[in-house]
Structures are given as C-alpha cells and as structure tokens.
Amino acid sequence: MAKVITFGIQKGGSSKTTTSGIVAYLLSQKHRVLAVDMDSQGNLTELLTQQDIYNFHKRTVFEALQIQDARPFIHKITDNLHIIPAEDHIARFASWLYDSKNPYRGNKSLVLMETLGDVQSDYDYIIVDTPPALGEQTINALAAANVVVAMFEASKFCYSALGRFLETCVHVQEKVNREMKIAGILRCMIDVRRTDNKALIELAEEVYGELCFDTVITRTAATGRLSINGFENNPEIKSAVAQYLEFIEELMDRVNGVED
Ligand SMILES: Nc1ncnc2c1ncn2[C@@H]1O[C@H](COP(=O)(O)OP(=O)(O)OP(=O)(O)O)[C@@H](O)[C@H]1O
Ligand SMILES: [Mg+2]
C-alpha cells in the first residue's frame, strides 16, 4: 500500500509545490509514485507535466473527488510518475461539499482518502500538494495522509503560520485520522547571506526541537528555475535537486517508522 505524504503550510510561497514536485520526481526514479495536486493554482500539475493546466479541464482531481474514484483521472508523466492534476475548479470543492443537493453522505474530511482508496495498491508513494490555506482541500489532504511535512520558509509570516498549521494537524489526528503522523518541519528557502534567515532557522529548532528535519534547504537559482525548465531534458537538473536527496533520506526514515 502506498504511503501518502502531504506537504502543507497555509503561508503562500513557502516551497510546498517545489518540494513536493522534487520529492515526487526523485522517488519516481526507484518507486511507483502518484502526485496529487489539491491546489487550484495547479502549480504542481504545471511543474511536473510542463503543460498548461487547462489542458486537463474536466479531467482533474475535482472530478475525481466528486465520484470518489481517482482512476479515470490519473495522467501518466513517465512509467513511474503519474499525476492527478488540478485547475481552478478545485476551488469549488468546499461549495460542492456543502451543497444541500450533494449526494455524498460520508465524512467531509475523508473525501480524498476515499478517492485514493482503490489506487493505493498501485503505488509506493502518493505525494499531495496543498493550497496556501487551511480550508477543505488542505483538511482532506491532511486527513488522507500517513505523514505530513510542514514547510517552513524562513520568514516571520511563515513562522507565525507554523503553530496553527501544527495545531490543525493535531486536530485532524484527533477528529478524523488517528493514524496520521507529523513527519516534521522542513526549513527551506534559506538565503545563507541573511542573518535574519539564520535566526529564524535557529528559532524553529529551539521551539520545535527534533520535529525539525536536520536538512535545511537553501535558495538556489537552479531550483527556482525548475518551474521554467521542468525535470526532463533540463541540463541543470542534478544541481536543482541535489540538496533534496538528504531530505528524502531523512523523510524515508521517518515515513518508514510509521506502521501500515
Ligand atoms: N529552494 C528554492 N530555491 C529557489 N527558489 C525556490 C526554492 N523553492 C521554491 N522556490 C521558488 O519560490 C517560489 C514559491 O515556491 P512554491 O511555488 O513551490 O511555493 P508554494 O508554497 O507552493 O506556493 P503557494 O503557497 O502559492 O502554493 C517559486 O517561484 C519557486 O520557484
Ligand atoms: Mg504551491
């Protein structure tokens, strides 16, 4: 059965998509991976497929959620890397969920988990990217997860968001999915020349201790350019993803510490 790994933080621009895309790409070198885009921006879809998100109109995660069946909406990127894409319409997920005419009668936080149910045995890992908000799309992504990675970009606003994000994870654990674990906090987008970045990195460690991954991801031009160049036939791919290899090792240790 696939391990579901969700990347989240309600602060925008904190490398959720970049990190989930790189992790999906790197894991797919050796494992069967399904990426799931739960954000109406469709950035993970664009990053991994290098296509316009509207090419996937009506063939996205929103349609999958409405029938709680992922299979017809899986797009193949490579043999080992598949995606359920998103476009703007997933923004209507909450209104669909609360529409009195909606025939869905299950737990409103478990729609994604139910949707992925039948395909879990087809993959080793399912990587879920979330929007910069704590709405229903994120709650469903947290509830569907075996493990959650909290993204901490070294800024004061992201630091302010982190506490509430972790509280939300605990709430989802208590109310919806007792099996879900918080894998840890990934400190990222560090500008090594900035002392305030360094101070925030240290503050996160002081406050959250071992919950922080040891690996810290810096800002690099090659990583930033992935959205333009993609993963295939990208001459700087090795340097773009190099620093994520260490993180994946740590992540795998924490993921595999989690029982099926
Ligand atoms: N390690 C990095 N080095 C350089 N640039 C990066 C790095 N990680 C992310 N970026 C860039 O920072 C910007 C924000 O990253 P990304 O879109 O992954 O964040 P996000 O948390 O998914 O944003 P949103 O909240 O809007 O979904 C993007 O332009 C991305 O290319
Ligand atoms: Mg994003």
Report a brief summary of the structure.
The protein is of the alpha/beta class. 42% of the residues lie in helices and 18% in strands. It has one domain (3-256): P-loop containing nucleotide triphosphate hydrolases (Rossmann fold).
How many strands? 8
Instruction: Please give the share of residues in helix.
Output: 40-55%
Cα radius of gyration in angstroms: 17 Å
CATH architecture: 3-Layer(aba) Sandwich
Sheet of most strands: 8 strands, mixed
Q: Give the low-pLDDT segments.
A: none
| SSE series | EHEHHEEHHEHEHEHEHHH
Write structural notes for this entry.
With 260 residues, the chain is α/β, with parallel strands linked by helices. The protein has one domain (3-256): Rossmann fold, CATH 3.40.50. Helix content is 42%, strand content 18%. The protein contains eleven helices and eight strands. Strands 3-4-2-5-1-6-7-8 form an eight-stranded mixed beta sheet, with helices on both faces. Strand 6 (147-153), helix 7 (156-175) and strand 7 form a beta-alpha-beta unit. Helix 1 (16-27) runs parallel beside helix 2 (43-49) and helix 1 (16-27) crosses helix 11. The radius of gyration is 17 Å and the shape is globular. The relative contact order is 0.18. The site of magnesium ion has 6 residues, from helix 1. Adenosine-5'-triphosphate is lined by residues 12-18, 39, 41, 43, 132, 188-189, 217, 219-220, 223-224, 227.
